[in-house]
Amino acid sequence: MTAADTLRSRGLRLTRPRRIILDVVRSTDTHPTAASVYRRVRRKLPRVSLATVHRNLRQLATQGLLVERSAADGMRFDGNTGVHDHFTCVACGRIYDVPARPRSAVRRRMASSTAFEVFDYRMEFYGRCGACRRRRTRSPLTRHQRRTYGRQEP
Ligand SMILES: [Zn+2]
Ligand SMILES: [Zn+2]
Question: Taking burial as the number of CB atoms within 10 A of a residue's CB, which of 9, 67, 74, 123 is the most buried?
Fold first, then answer.
């Protein structure tokens, strides 16, 4: 089903701003903020407002065409709606998609040790990406955080 079909089945239209906003988020894997989407959308629609971009992002997320996720620096939007996990680089702040770990083992373990029925869970990885490791950027973590994450100094 195309994005236009999905929206039409809910009585919404894939307007030009909506299509451009969707394209911008889907064409990148950087999980942009609303402000960053706005900057890119403005190149094609110079008169669009941040509020319009924001409203459409929320609406596209509600319809399942995008995923809205909270990150350390606010809300971000993910054009990848498939099951996957994330790696956040604490040096450059980039959020990378990584393949999802198998869900069933963790769900079973949880079910056997609690009374909870788990439908899904989220796994987040934090560290330093390949580009930042090559640049040997100084870690922005405090000594306490380094101890918590068990990281070794380069
Ligand atoms: Zn990085
Ligand atoms: Zn993602």
Answer: 67
For residue 31, which phi and psi values (nearest 5 degrees)?
55, 65
Q: Which domains does the chain possess?
A: 1-79 (1.10.10.10), 83-154 (3.30.1490.190)
Query: Does pTM surpass 0.85?
Result: no
Ion ligand 2, residues whose Cβ is below 5 A away: 78, 80, 97
Distances from the Cα of 85 to the Cα of 78, 94, 151, angstroms: 11, 14, 21
- Taking the centre of ligand 1 as the mean of its atom positions, its distance from the CA of residue 144, in whole angstroms, is 20
pLDDT exceeds cutoff 60 at 154:
no
Look-up of token digits 């993910």: 78
Place of tokens 């669009």: 48
